[in-house]
Structure formats: structure tokens, C-alpha cells
């Protein structure tokens, strides 16, 4: 079944726990889309002149609105894409924290800078908003994926359009209402209920000045090409098969606990998640035995009642694609240590699965497994482990487990070819730290002030006399 079905001019959302229809939403016509873009641009023309402090007040209010709607939004996200309700609540807390951090730090990040010129004149660097920014976002974190780019760009003074994944249409519309109820000017943030052809037209629209996408590497190539042909900047946060390295001096209890959480959190449907577990030969067998035992204990259960450790996968086609990757890996030599079977229950469930003897040429080694499937890879030593970790076309996140923290930091800084590294733990995102990747995981950075400056005109003002 597709992300959501288009029934005539309707978009339909489906509950992945049972395959039942949730809601239908009317798709917008081309004239509606044109009006929304025009209105967003008009709202931007006023918003760009608001002080960062005033923008921050409204952004802080958005955070408060998110907290007040936390339970309702978390349940809606669970119904639309299957995450545990408690993890949805954690997601909303993170989103509110991003609003708080942006409101407090945005004015300083965007403040103009003064510089002396070599000829004795004065230089001034201004960060000026550029206009309407279009975001194409996925279903796996229905609130966070939106907040991550929208709040930064609203703080910068831009207008924001959202094409959310069709399967989480309700979540996108709830966010739109939260933004509006918090006092954000009308039309400054709008949700587009559109198809791919209409989306292409939005990218090409003369009033749309930048495009940001979270999605697959393939989607990133398409969007970057379309935007590039119109000389529009893009920020791309794409997929990955993040490597978590376990060195000989690691605390194995901690490593196993964190690696399991890193693989099954959000039902394993996370871009920056632990996916390939590269363990040095000296401790490989011990780690594997403990890890497999812990993964066998991961239970599926009703996500609305937090009854299990994982809920269903978000879509039937995604579940089927994941199972096919597992089967192809086994055909090419991988060994299933646990899981690997499609349950007969209603809905789109898949058990926590561990593949051993993972090698190049298998999807479990080469590709991204977007679900609760772990790849175990044996390395000869620490140097070999880093070589394997970097032997990937992706580079979003990664991890290192070692009790020698200084050594781990040096490895992360000088040798790990990836955008984010977590040492002795698993993490997702922090409001004050940059978020983004390299290679086929995309380019550009969000959070930590970096996202506020991705879509601004860094303007040089030279006062000569």
C-alpha cells in the first residue's frame, strides 16, 4: 500500500497497526497552491522587518503551544505512523526545546557583525531573510522534521511552506494550527496538500527561494537537480547506514544497552540511528551473544498503550521492502540470529532482527535498513573497524564505544567520515548542536544556529568613507 492513497482528489491516512483508514483530506488544486505561495510571500514582506526579538516571542509561544497539545499530537502521530506514544511525547518535548533555544539564541546568532576594512573603512555583515522556503518532509518524525527547518527559517525572517508526507497529513495540519494559535502571522506557515507534479511546480515557482528535503538519497538527487536548474539553494538531510564501533575496551553492558536502543527506537525508522554494529574480533562473540539476547527480548505491542518496545512499521510497502533486504542479505551469506519473519497479524509489523556474518554485497552492509534490523560486522581491530565504518556511501551519524574517551574523541574528529558522532551512547538531535551529514547523506546543517543561516543573504555592507 502506498504512503497514502489518492482517491480522486482525496488523500487518505492509514493506521499501520491494523491497516484501517483514519481520515481523508482534500488535495489542493493548482490555483489554491498559487494563492498560498502568493500569500506566504506577502506575509514574508512584513515578517522580514520584525525584530529577531519579536520573532523569538512568537516562536517561544509555539513551543508552549506544542507542550499544551503534547498528548493529542503524540496520539495522532502514533495513529498515523505507528511510533510508541511515549516516544511521540519525547518528540514533542524536543520540538518545544528547539523553539525555546531558537527564541533565546536567535537574536544573537542573527545579529549584524562589524569588521574593520583594510583601507580604514567599516564593514558590516547582515543576515537578511530571502523569502519563501519550501520544505518536503517525511513521516518518521511527523513533528520534529517540520520544526527542525520551519522554526529556524521563521526566526531568520523567512516564510515557510510544508509538503508533509501524505501518511501524516493530520499531524502537519495540527502543527499549522499550533503555529497560528501561537500568534504567527496568517499565511506565514502553510501546509500544501499536493502531489509530486504540483510539488515540482512549487520548486520552480519564482517566489520560492530555497528548498529543503529530508528523505532518501534518490529523492535528494531529484530535488537538488530540480532546484539547481532554477539556481535555488537546497539543504538535504538524507538516509544513512550509521556505523557504531565497539572497541576492545568498551563497557559491554553499556554498549549492548545503547546499541539496542539505537536500533529499535522509533521502530527502527530513523535516519540517524545505529544500523551497522562493527565490533573488534577480541570481543565480537561476547558482544554478539549479549546483543542477540537483548534483541530477542524486544517485543511488539500496541503503540497507543506503550505495550511493547516497538510498534508497527509505518507502511506496508516499507515493511515488505525491509523484509526483501533481509532475504537478499541471507541469500548472499548473512545469517539470521533472531527475527526475520513477517508476522501474520493485521497491520505492518516486523520483529527486531539481527543479521550476523554481514559483508559487502549484502543490503545489510551496503544499504540503509529502515526498520528494526541490525547488521553485525566483525573487524580485525580498531583500525579495521574504522575502515569498515567509512566504507559506506553514507555519512550522517555514527558511534564509538570505548572507555578511553580521549582516544574516542580523536577518532571521531580526525578519522570518522560522518556528520555526527556519539561516544558511549546513542543520540538523535540536540537544539544547540549541528545536525546533518556528508556524502550520500546530504549537505547543509540544521540546529545550533547553523540552520538559521542556511537560507539568508549574508550581505556585505562596505562603508568606504
How many angstroms separate the termini?
A: 67 Å
- CATH-scheme architecture of the largest domain: 3-Layer(aba) Sandwich
Approximate strand percentage: 15-25%
By DSSP, the count of extended strands is 19
| Number of separate helices | 14
Biggest sheet features: 7 strands, mixed
Q: What is the approximate shape?
A: globular
Q: Work out the count of structural domains.
A: 2
The share of residues in helices is 40-55%
Question: What descriptive keywords fit this protein?
Answer:
465 residues, alpha/beta, Aldehyde Dehydrogenase, Chain A, domain 1, Aldehyde Dehydrogenase, Chain A, domain 2, 2 domains, seven-stranded mixed β-sheet, six-stranded mixed β-sheet, 14 helices, 20% strand, globular, disordered N terminus
How is this structure best described in words?
The chain is an alpha/beta fold. The chain folds into two domains: 257 residues, Aldehyde Dehydrogenase, Chain A, domain 1, CATH 3.40.605; 188 residues, Aldehyde Dehydrogenase, Chain A, domain 2. It has 14 helices and 19 strands. It has a seven-stranded mixed β-sheet with strand order 13-14-15-12-11-16-17, sandwiched between helices. The chain has a six-stranded mixed β-sheet with strand order 8-7-6-9-10-18, with helices on both faces. The chain has a three-stranded antiparallel β-sheet with strand order 1-2-3, with helices on one face. Strand 9, helix 8 and strand 10 form a beta-alpha-beta unit. Helix 2 packs antiparallel against helix 4 and helix 9 crosses helix 10. The N terminus is likely disordered.
